[in-house]
């Protein structure tokens, strides 16, 4: 409960809504990775990586089980399902591995170019659907 209060005070729900909307626009090619990366400058990197890691996990789970109950929160259910149906398992595993590696660098306080890091994440994310 204390973490929830803290996250609420930080405006995390609003930040997540902004990111979810951005991911949807990215996949529909209505916004570029660069625009989104710059627009998300005030959102903590760890939070972003946690969400993308969670979403990649949900994609893998759905690919293996086809269980719609396991698609996660309502705001990303259709996106997770779409990506699960249109992406290869190998690509999803690769992006999950990459996200975890970058998250570890952020946690170890590596000096990273935030915008380039997010652009790389978003370009890979946009490339999930399609051929291997």
UniProtKB/TrEMBL annotation:
UniProt cross-references to Gene3D superfamilies, sorted A to Z: 1.20.272.10
Signal peptide per UniProt: none
Ranges annotated as spanning the membrane: none
Boundaries of every DNA polymerase III delta subunit C-terminal domain copy: 14-125
A Gene Ontology term for the protein's cellular component: DNA polymerase III complex
GO biological process: DNA replication
A GO MF label: DNA binding
Name of the protein: DNA polymerase III, delta prime subunit
Organism: Pseudomonas syringae pv. maculicola
């Amino acid at each position: 409960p204390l973490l929830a209060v803290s996250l609420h005070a930080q405006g995390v729900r609003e930040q997540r809504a902004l990111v979810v909307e951005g991911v949807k626009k990215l996949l529909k090619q209505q916004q570029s990775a660069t625009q989104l990366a710059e627009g998300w400058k005030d959102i903590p990197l760890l939070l972003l990586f946690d969400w993308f890691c969670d979403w990649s996990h949900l994609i893998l789970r759905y690919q293996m089980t086809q269980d719609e109950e396991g698609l996660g929160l309502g705001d990303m259910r259709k996106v997770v399902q779409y990506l699960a149906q249109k992406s290869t398992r190998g690509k999803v595993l690769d992006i999950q591995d990459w996200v975890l590696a970058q998250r570890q660098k952020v946690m170890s306080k590596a000096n990273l170019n935030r915008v380039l890091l997010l652009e790389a994440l978003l370009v890979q994310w946009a490339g999930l659907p399609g051929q291997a």
